[in-house]
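Lecture 7, part 2: worked example. A protein chain together with carboxymethyl coenzyme *A.
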Amino acid sequence: MTTQQREISLARGLKGVYLDTTESSDVQGDIGKLIYRGYNIHDLAEQSTFEETIYLLLYGKLPTRAQLNQFGATLHQSGKVPGPVIDIIRSVQKSHPMDVLRTAVSALSAFDPETEDNSPEATLRKGIRLTAQTPTIVCAHDRIRHGLKPVEPNPSLNFAANFLYMLKGEAPSEADTKLMDTDFILHADHGSNASAFGARVAASTLADLHCAVVAGVATLKGPWHGGAAEKVMEMALEIGEESKALSYIEDRLKKGDRVMGFGHRVYTAEDPRARHLRDRAKALGDRMGQPKWWRILSAVEERMRPYARRGICVNVDFWSGSIYYLLGIPEDLFISIFAIGRVPGWAVQVLEQQKNNILIRPLLKYVGPMDVPYVPIDQRS
Ligand code: CMC
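Predicted complex, written out as structure tokens:
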């Protein structure tokens, strides 16, 4: 029997397909549970730091204090972005920040001393460098496009504080730093999400980590993945006040449009990351004297509650946008923040792919015409 005659069952979007094994993170969608290396996301969100979480993902265990100090110092030393890459950022400054990030990560490969070394040791070192360089790129771009000078990383600040410092040029408060830190922890890895899959596909061809991270950044950009937080805040701004939320959502659903920040391929219960940002978004709104965004989003959440019965629940991106907005971060940077948090996840999944590599190459069922006679160009009508 030929492939054309055989009955083929499709797994469109690879829904429900296990691609490989992983020891990095596990999304247990039916019970709304997420673990990194065995640790519950709730414990990490409440008790860990982003530096510690990166270490956990990359090395497979929590660091001792000495290891964490050493790792923090390495991250600091790795955050510089070469001048020619800053020049490239300057020349493409008008593009969307994710396009600038994708271009800059690609350009970094020309300056990294180990770009084409796919050994696990070099890939780990590159993963640490890219984790540290990504916020430098995002912040340098934002400052350049606003006519400001990029700010050098400050070695006395932790990762999250340094990000806010390089973005705004002033050291952030402890509360804002903690918020950003938690947000990065929550975004660090997430099973076979679309961008990690994109990164794995690139790595499976034996392409290097820079290629894989470019694929990750490119895949994250869409509003069905990393772009949802930006769309949620757009929606909140359009709604404008709590009393209009209900009719806005009714209209949207009547038109068959999706409500951004809801639904997930794997979670049929609430995304466990969302609750940490929900409470923090409320506290931040109260602290800033702007409780209205949380109220608008809560009214949207309330209207969407019946959808939970169909497994369409609130996801991490629903609350993160309002946090970034209240921190004074421009909406078009929201996806880049997700990317900063996710680089360690891409790196660890590329390391796993390389360790036990197999080319990722699924099939497509051909449904087009068959045996069409070739007509020479002059005889075509
Ligand atoms: N609002 C309204 N209806 C929805 C939504 C939503 N946000 N999400 C899914 N549905 C409906 C969809 O219209 C479809 O209905 P029907 O069966 O009547 O055609 C049904 O649910 C199944 O949708 P699907 O597209 O087959 O499901 P999926 O698993 O492929 O979708 C998703 C996952 C994330 C693409 C989708 O839920 C969505 O578009 N959500 C909005 C975008 C969003 O918030 N993305 C961020 C995800 S969390 C961050 C991350 O990890 O990437």
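The pocket of carboxymethyl coenzyme *A is lined by residues 13, 190, 193, 224-225, 228, 258-265, 312, 315-317 (CB under 6 Å). The CA atoms of residues 26 and 65 lie 26 Å apart. Keep this in mind for problem set question 3.
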